[in-house]
Amino acid sequence: MDNDKIQVDILGLSPTPAPGGGGYALILKEIGGERRLPIIIGSFEAQHIALELEGIKPPRPLTHDLLRNIIEQLGFSISYVYINELRDGTFFAKIKMDVGSVEEVDSRPSDAIALALKFAVPIYVNEDVMNEVLIEKIEILNILENKSRREVE
Question: What is the pTM for the complete model shown?
Answer without folding.
Answer: 0.83
